[in-house]
Amino acid sequence: MLVESIMIALEGLKANKLRSILTMLGIIIGVGAVIAMVSIGMGVRDKVQSSIAGLGSNLLIVSPGAASQGGSRQAAGSGITLTAKDATAIARQVQGVTLVAPMVSRQYQIVYGNQNWTTSVQGTTPEYLDIRNFTVEEGGFFTSQDSEARARVAVLGKTTADNLFSGVSPVGKTIRINKAPFRVVGVLGSKGQSAGGMDQDDVILVPITTAQERLLGITYVQNINIQAASSETIDQVQEDVTSLLRQRHNLAANVPDDFRVQNMVAVMATATEATDTITLLLGVIAAISLLVGGIGIMNIMLVSVTERTREIGIRKALGARYGNILLQFLIEAIVIGVVGGLMGIGLGVGASYIISAVAGWNTVISSLAIVTAFGFSVLIGLFFGIYPARKAALLDPIDALRYE
């Protein structure tokens, strides 16, 4: 009986192709929209996660607080409160810390031959390479001995190297930073854009002592990058770093911190929660069209009941029971939901690939979204088919046979 009912339902769809397609259109668009919107949302989430993870694993960034001038507070990070000795103390005294790299930076115009490029010149230590997950594509990285000697050596980011050297190997060449000569010892591997849209490859790295004394003329550092041993210990490391720096800066209990410790693991968790909420919102908005499709199914099933009133009367006269008629029309509604759902899956997957190829957006097709959207399409077919099926099953056989 079940197989026969399914075959009758499919024959009914074939007999009224245009009406069937129009009926299923809401389901097709709804399922496709849910899959496409969720894939966009998950793509955004993965992009943000990879960008934050690209900054470094289990990363803490210590930056100075806001400076005060004439009674007014300046921008965050404008204070002069951190030194290289703070970084050394953190590395030696805080348990759970694996690597520490202080850093200073400023924008400079870089000149090589008749080419020039303005970029961020960052002074740091060799540990920065591992903390921030950079790789060296060509040449090498400067050493601790280079820092001690205040050597004029530089490692170029991929974007900077391409703009200054146009495909020629820069290793061993001499560039000028703020009119001072620097020898290029290496080129970093490409990391692409950050979550904020900044080019992480548009940079030059030099030894921190060289940047402080030969370029900037300062003794303080602008931030300290810290890598914790694991994500489980990073919160404790953050507390210990805060306590140590307050002690070193002689801050009383009622005095606020003159620095800020940013936990990138917590930032990633917050970003993930936000993008998951956006993904859910996109999916819910797209799912509204599934309800519209369900209304279309109810409408066409009511029309079908009206058209087949005499058929229903004949079936009841031949012995068909309430359950037989109810099952027949429910199966027809479910078949519409199943066929529409399958076509919607194809539409959603195809739309995701097209959006990724045309718009350049990162999309992630979720099997959970596909299964959920398809399941809802079947449930909607069942739910909106109950009323028409029950109406058909409750028809009086005598009145049905008299129906013209």
| Broad shape | elongated
The total tally of domains equals: 2
Strand residues, percent = 15-25%
Unreliable runs: none
Largest sheet: 6 strands, mixed, barrel
The mean pLDDT is 84
Looking at the chains present, what oligomeric state does this protein adopt? single chain
Helix content: 55-70%
* Strand elements, count: 12
Number of helices: 13
Keywords:
six-stranded mixed β-barrel, 57% helix, elongated, alpha+beta, 404 residues, single chain, 13 helices
Descriptive overview:
By secondary structure, the chain is an alpha+beta fold. It has 2 domains: 2-51 and 270-402, no CATH class; 82-257, no CATH class. Helices cover 57% and strands 18% of the residues. The strands form 2 sheets. The protein has a 6-stranded mixed beta barrel. Strand 8 (174-177) and strand 9 form a beta hairpin. Helix 9 crosses helix 11 (322-359). It is elongated, with a radius of gyration of 33 Å.
Blueprint (SSEs and pairs):
Layout: H1 2-15, H2 17-55, E1 59-64, E2 68-69, E3 72-73, H3 84-93, E4 97-112, E5 115-124, H4 127-131, E6 136-139, H5 144-148, E7 153-156, H6 158-165, E8 174-177, E9 180-188, E10 203-207, H7 208-216, E11 223-228, H8 234-248, E12 259-263, H9 264-307, H10 309-317, H11 322-359, H12 367-393, H13 397-402
Parallel strand pairs: 5-10, 7-9
Antiparallel strand pairs: 1-11, 1-12, 2-3, 4-5, 4-8, 4-11, 6-9, 7-10, 8-9
